[in-house]
Amino acid sequence: MTNALPPRFDITRPEIERVVAAFYAAVRRHPGLGPVFAVHVEDWPAHEAKVVDFWANSILHERSYDGSPMAAHIKAGNVKPGMFSTWLDLFDATLRVELPPEKAAAWSALAHRIGRSLRAGVVERETLPGGIPKLR
To answer: Are 133 and 126 contacting, i.e. CB atoms less than 8 angstroms apart?
Structure first.
């Protein structure tokens, strides 16, 4: 697929697929994140394919993803703001194992930007009286 924009950094779709597969294998084993995802994901291959499309869109500027991560996380109902740091830590660990340092660092920076945005969206909807964020 030819894209109008160059990739954000040098990575291939097979590398994205490998990282996503390794990450979700780790998520399923994780005592905190595993149960959160298990409530919603019935078809792991389909979920992973959708997430691969998300990252290919975000990094490679492919036009294969048509969803809303913000809406999905809000709709889930069991995603809390405090979970994002755990998610990002696990994602960073996966990146360090699966990719060379420069690719891992570039993807991590993007994931952290997206994570901050998602967390802010969840926090805005999960507040205590006076607008104080619920962190747990």
So the answer is: yes
